[in-house]
Design brief:
Layout lengths: L9 E3 L14 H7 L4 E6 L7 H11 L2 E7 L17 H30 L7 H42 L7 H25 L1
Length: 199
């Protein structure tokens, strides 16, 4: 069976704004109203956008990210010459690859999984839509879980430190010391999870 190729009518946001930032996502609603199905996003500096925010706004507008491209000025050198004009160019390319991966890799993999669950030969538009909704729900659940780890971890560790600090002025029995130590360990672990997930 021939692979299914989906062609979409897209637009490059560079026609309307430069640089593209998180605030530029307000254009998505207009693009959708004009009949476009996908957006090509030129990135001048990776720090200008939060991939998760851009993906959420694309989903809300009912658009797909057709592609992500690097906007590199004359001061950027990607060919690896003997004397690069700016060290930013190589770093920008690496970070840009990471951003593209965050926006597309999960969607592609989940689309294949959805098609496989339905025993389909090709990935359909419905599979992509199901994958998009699933990933969005998972991201929301993960953000809630990470925030909860940070809140509880800080509370447990703070309670542990507070209780242990009072031990200098009054004696603490073995059971209280054990419970306090366990709270401290659990709190430290939860804070470590929170820090790792929010880096």
């Amino acid at each position: 069976m021939e692979p299914c190729v989906i062609m979409r009518f897209g637009i490059n946001s560079f026609l309307f704004t430069s640089p593209f930032t998180n605030d530029s996502t307000k254009l998505f609603k207009t693009f959708k109203r004009w009949g476009f199905e996908s957006v090509e996003i030129p990135i001048e500096d990776p720090s200008h956008i939060d991939p998760a925010h851009v993906k959420a706004k694309l989903d809300k507008a009912g658009l797909m990210c057709g592609s992500v491209c690097a906007c590199l000025g004359p001061a950027c050198d990607l060919h690896g010459g003997e004397a690069p004009i700016s060290p930013f160019s190589h770093d920008a390319a690496r970070v840009l690859d990471k951003i593209k991966a965050e926006l597309t890799e999960a969607l592609v993999q989940e689309s294949f999984r959805d098609a496989k669950r339905q025993q389909a030969d090709v990935v359909s538009a419905a599979n992509v839509e199901h994958a998009r909704r699933y990933i969005l729900r998972r991201q929301k659940n993960e953000r809630w879980y990470v925030k909860l780890c940070g809140i509880l971890g800080g509370t447990f560790l703070g309670a542990c430190i507070s209780k242990l600090s009072t031990g200098f002025s009054q004696p603490i029995d073995y059971t209280t010391l054990l419970i306090t130590s366990l709270l401290g360990l659990v709190g430290s672990f939860m804070l470590a999870v929170f820090i790792a997930k929010t880096e």
